[in-house]
Structure formats: structure tokens, C-alpha cells
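G.,

No rush on this.
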Amino acid sequence: MYSLSGSKSQRSWTSFHAQKDEHIFYVGRGDGRVAVVDTRQNPDGNTVVGKCYDISVKTVDIHPKMDHIITTSSRTGVVGIFDIRKFSGNKAASLSTFSHKKVCHSAFFSPLSGDYVLSSSADDTIQIHDVSKLEKPASVLSLKHNNFTGRWITPFRPIWHPQREDVFVSGSMRGFTGNRVIEAFSVDGSVLHTFQGDNLTTILPVTAFHPTLEFLVGGSSSGKAYLLEEPK
């Protein structure tokens, strides 16, 4: 157990975190800040904090090849790329940004090169941007996708396949005869595969791949988890 330093108002609430290694976490907060937390240090010590937005950070992700580079999504709809080495005096100047029209629920670097960022939003799009030039992101894909899960269900957060940069998956509002699905997409926006089954009767907004095996897990807002594997 580790508690961030400061008063309750200073700490705000934790919205998301990314783990650099066994000790260091990049923690997104409800006040728009990202804190670099080293659990080996006293929480009352010098925690590095950068204010990325005026309101809450939705996700934080670490570049796979440059662990001082992060991307963050925000309630404002902005996706930002930051160098945490430049966090200074509680301030954070972005290397670059791009925006959705409504709140951005997630933004994740592609897992191998980090050259692309996959993001999703309440504007009913999933987007991919080329960020190989960190200061000049370029749009690659804007896919129309029903992201309206409702007030009580976690928003969709599409994720990359952990060993590929041409495939991503997302929960879906689509359903067949009462059942729900998870869809796998190509980076051109085409549907590669639809995961479905007789027992898959709930929306699965949260998904996670096994890092080395061909297994996919979908989680529901009611606390259920479904383990999916490629048919033999």
C-alpha cells in the first residue's frame, strides 16, 4: 500500500496509472496532473508532478522505447504527448497534442515501436495517429464507432495486440440475438474478427491480451470476466 503525499485536495483522485518498472508509476489524477511516483521514496518527499490539463487525466501510457515519453488522454478531448523530464514546478508543456471533439477515454502507444497512438472518444470515433515525429502527429485513421456505453458502464478503451501494430480490439455495442461481441480491427478500420459466444451476454468495455499467449480477456461493469481464445 502506498499513499500519495499532500492534503486530500492536493492529491485529488487517481484516474489511471502506467507502470515503468517495479518501483516507478506514472499516475494520472482527477485534477489534470500526472505524478511520477517512486514507491522506494517517502511519499512526503519530492514527487515529480506535471499539470497536463485543467481537468482530469483519463489514461496514461509509456512509450515502449523511450520511457520518459508519455501520452495522456483527457476529459477535454485532448491527447497530449509529454516528456516527463521537462516536468518542472508543477507544470508540464506538451511536445504535441491532437484532439477529439468530446471527452477522450483512452490513448495508447503502439506496443513495438511507439510510432502510433490509438485513441477513443465520446465523439464516437476510434482514431490512430502517426507520432513517429513526436512533435508533429499525423492522422492515419478516424473510424466511426458507437462508443456510447451509457452512464453506468465503463467507456470503451480499445487496445493494441501486444505483439503487433496492425491489429487492435474494442468492446462493441453490437450484438447478435441478445449476445455481445468484441471486435478485432485492422489499422485500416476493417473488421478482422468478431469474438462472440452463447455465454457472452454483456457489454465488455475493458479488454486485455495475455502478453505472450493467444488469449483475450473481456471485463464487464458487473464484475464478470470472459476468457476468449482463438478457435482450434
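When you get to it, here's the other one too:
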Amino acid sequence: ALTQMTSIKSLEQALASDLSGLATSIGIGAAHTVLIARGPLQCLAAQYFLESLPLASLVLIDPLLLPDDGRVKKQKIASPEVVDNRWKSSLQDLISLLDGNAPNMYKHADRIVGDSATHPLLLSDSTSTKTLSESALTSLNVELSLLNSMSCNEDSQQLLLEPGIVPMLIFYSGGVNNDYEDYYRICAERTAAFHTCAGSSDYFDQVSVAKIPTIQGGSGADDMDHLMKQIYDWYDVAVA
């Protein structure tokens, strides 16, 4: 459980343990597993996990944290200040969301949030923590504590993972229940760009980005059946 995690490394270790248990119980190891990670911290841990253990493919949902790009630092293509800003700005934006404030890209907007109830990760100025369940509030506080600890740590964990290691698909939350859909989409697109493998000429092994489908004519909740169908269809084409 996330409430028991004290660092991204502990999330990685828990993930490795779960996949090891899967191999023991049904005989399917990580190399034959399609991992679906949802949430900023979960997506970040899944990307670091790929550096040490293989997967058949990776599906990221709402990867709001942009990893510290160790590839650029290693190649010395950009200045350290430019590279560090990518990680630090996404980290501060996520802390702002958890604190009930808008990400930096909305600071000049006249109207930021809608009237609908938002996801617990998207506490708007009109959403009180009193409306959250006890478990959601506990998870929120744990995430805030972990993120604040990460923001104070000068030595962030660099992601050296080369692009195109495994087939990858990225989704982001949208619809009436997400007041910051544009922010989620931009983070998804930047994550996809990080993992896109540039080929020769005009060819790019582009990582696809899609919006999570919502139930039509209802509350705008995520249509999980449709989402899983999209993942299965993608798997049949890109992985199988």
C-alpha cells in the first residue's frame, strides 16, 4: 500500500516483490508481464523499475512527474540547470495540486477550476479535505510527505533508461471531473516524448498518448471497460 511507502525506491522494491510473487504463483515472470501503473508516483516508480528488470510492455496512466533525465546529463547536451528544471518544476506542480493549488501553467488564468467535484489529486480551491474519505486523506498526506521529502533532496534519482526499451502506451485523465485536463495531457505528452525513440530519416517510434474514455451520458466517470479494450487492442498490435 502507498501509505507504507517512504521513498520511490521502496515503491520499486514493492513492485519487484509483487512481480516475483506472480512468477512463483502462476509461473509468469516480469519479462512476460504488461505493467499498468496509474498515478504520478506509481508511474515514476514503474519507469525506474524498467532500468533493472524487464517487462513485456508498460502502460502509464497520469504520469505527472517527469523523471530527472540522466541521459541528457550523461551526454552533456544541455546545461544542468535546464535538465534539473524539468524534474523540479513537475515535482512542485504536483505538490501544488496536492496542497489544493493550481499548477504553475494556470497562474495567469482568469478561471482555473470548474464547479464539478475533482479527483483527490486535484483538490481545487472549492474542495475541502473534509469531503475526502479517511483513507483518501491518509493517502493524500503520505503522498505530500513523500513529495516534500523528494523536493528537499538535492540528489534526485536520475533515469538513464534508453528510449524504446519496451512498447509503451500512455493515458491521461480528462473530462468533466478533471479541472486540469490540459496539464495532465501536457505531462503525458512530455513523458511520451522522453520515451520516443528517434530513428533514421523522418521515422520516429512514437509512444502513443490517449485520453481515458469516459462513460457517455453519465457522470463523466472513467469507462474502465473501454480503457481495457484499448489496452488489449494496442497489445495485440504492438506487443503480441
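Confidence is low (pLDDT under 50) at residues 111-117, 122-129. The CA atoms of residues 95 and 194 lie 22 Å apart.

Enjoy the weekend,
O.
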